[in-house]
Write a structure and sequence with these properties.
The chain is an all-alpha fold and 177 residues long. The protein has a domain at 71-167: Oxo-4-hydroxy-4-carboxy-5-ureidoimidazoline decarboxylase (UraD-like), CATH 1.10.3330. The chain is 60% helix and 0% strand. The relative contact order is 0.14. Bound molecules: guanine (GUN). Homodimer.
Amino acid sequence: NSKNLARDLNADGFIARFGGVFEHSPWIAEAALAADPGLLHADVGRLHAAMASVLRAAGPERQLVVLRAHPDLAGKLALAGELTADSSAEQAGAGLDRCTAEEFARFQELNDHYQSKFGFPFIIAVRGLDRHDILRAFEKRVGNTPEQEFQTALGQVERIALLRLYQITGQPQHDLG
Ligand code: GUN
């Protein structure tokens, strides 16, 4: 049954496979597995629900650490080639490595403005979006209140995790909005 994605994995294998689903935050996969060893035999929907509840239960301080673990989009780490493989592939998939000098400068301005207003980087699940869509969403979200934006960012982190789970497992995607 190809939906039992993690079967034949032990706990170490599970973390090796799914630890990066939340950027630089393998503790989320670890805590989810500790709470429910049955995740070794779960499909994407169940894995994602379990990891998302760990993040939701973690409280605002640890949630903020997770948000801050994300690199800027079209930022200096990307230029320096220092992203995780997932982030690099996602940014390239949205064409962020092909920004004009003007677009790149606009990203830097928005990144700085957003970071100083909210205290974490702008995070958006970029799959299916191009750099114009992303800049438009960026311009809009920078006007949100901190409370709104914290919740929006957490929702995007969960969506990025879901997309990564589908990517890793090859399970067909059917429940994406
Ligand atoms: N959206 C998808 N991946 C990433 C990432 O690594 N960083 C940010 N800021 N947004 C993303």
